[in-house]
Specification:
By secondary structure, the protein is α/β, with parallel strands linked by helices. It has two domains: 139 residues, Nucleoside Triphosphate Pyrophosphohydrolase, CATH 3.90.79.10; 161 residues, Nucleoside Triphosphate Pyrophosphohydrolase. The protein is built from six helices and 19 strands. Helix 5 packs antiparallel against helix 6. The longest helix is centred in the last third of the chain and has 18 residues. The chain is elongated. The protein starts with a strand and ends in a 7-residue tail after the last helix.
Length: 314
């Protein structure tokens, strides 16, 4: 069973067991509950003597006013959640996730301070729980962003994982070339992209990162797939294809990227695969060699790209 979050030893731990529902409306948007602590999937802790499905039905009535049909049990996950600082506690929550269907709204008198929202799964990047963001990927977004590679899956039970979301682009240019980012200093090559900011739409993050790192305007963004990597964290990277258009006023790299001497180049697909495969740079992070994982995921993305509809190419 995966465990998400960050354990903070200076805080005491309270155990909690709950049930949570994943439901979408006719437009494919996921139901979210927003309160003063953040955004959550509908659901919550079990009362004494209460069963999981019984608790889920009660929580939906309290938080949304809806009666529900429970379609199927999905999986069990655990995660650490911080409470307000003055409490000096963490909650270790073990939750069972269910696929749920709304029936009818029987009342509008929901819990005080709670707001019911329907949002695109691609925008659900600031949930209070990493586990719930992961559940949204697995059960809402994974059809649109199918896994193209999974790394260290066998070790997934051995650590507590914070979740990092990232977005990367295969940016097509004239002459059926793509843009790579290269560093001679570190002997690495990769695809443009980086971390998704909290609350940032996945597509918007891909566009922002691609513009900053390539110095080009970006158009015709298309989902390609996702990579799943277990290391010191669970990194979920959303991959896209896109078309480069007008040149902008230079590239905008982070301080670390500038220190690494990264710059964009345009190459054909075969050359890109060769350059990535032959780069020998080693980057360690908390005991994991992450450069090799980056090479593997980027090569997997290029393989998926070659098998995809590339009609968007200029």
């Amino acid at each position: 069973m995966p465990v998400f979050g960050i354990r903070k030893p200076e805080r005491s731990v309270v155990l909690r067991t709950g049930a949570y529902g994943i439901v979408t409306n006719i437009s494919g948007k996921v139901m979210i509950i927003k309160n003063k602590l953040g955004k959550f999937l509908p659901g919550g802790g079990l009362n004494p003597g209460e069963g999981y499905e019984e608790a889920l039905r009660r929580e939906f009535l309290e938080e949304t006013g809806y009666e529900i049909t429970i379609k199927r049990r999905l999986e069990t996950m655990s995660w650490y959640i911080d409470t307000p600082a003055e409490w000096n506690l963490q909650v270790f929550n073990t939750g069972i996730f269910y696929e749920v269907e709304l029936e009818k709204r029987v009342h509008a008198d929901i819990e005080e301070g709670h707001e019911v929202l329907f949002i695109d799964g691609e925008s659900a990047t600031d949930m209070h729980s990493d586990a719930q963001m992961w559940a949204i990927y697995k059960y809402i977004l994974s059809e649109q962003y199918p896994p193209i590679i999974k790394t260290n899956i066998s070790a997934a039970q051995d650590r507590i994982y914070p979740l990092r979301l990232a977005a990367r682009c295969i940016v097509q240019t004239e002459g059926d070339k793509i843009i790579l980012l290269k560093s001679e200093k570190l002997d690495i090559c990769g695809l443009p992209g980086g971390g998704i900011l909290r609350g940032e739409d996945i597509r918007a993050a891909a566009m922002r990162e691609a513009k900053e790192e390539t110095g080009r305007s970006i158009d015709q963004l298309k989902p390609l797939g996702a990579s799943i990597e277990f290391s010191s964290m669970l990194q979920l990277t959303y991959y896209f294809t896109a078309v480069a258009t007008a040149a902008l006023h230079g590239v905008h790299l982070t301080e670390l990227e500038s220190d690494w001497g990264i710059y964009p180049i345009e190459v054909d697909i075969a050359t890109a695969e060769e350059m990535i495969a032959q780069s020998k740079g080693i980057i360690m992070h908390e005991g994991f060699e992450v450069a090799s994982m980056s090479r593997a995921r980027n090569l997997a993305a290029l393989k998926a790209y070659k098998l995809s509809d590339r009609s968007a190419a200029p």
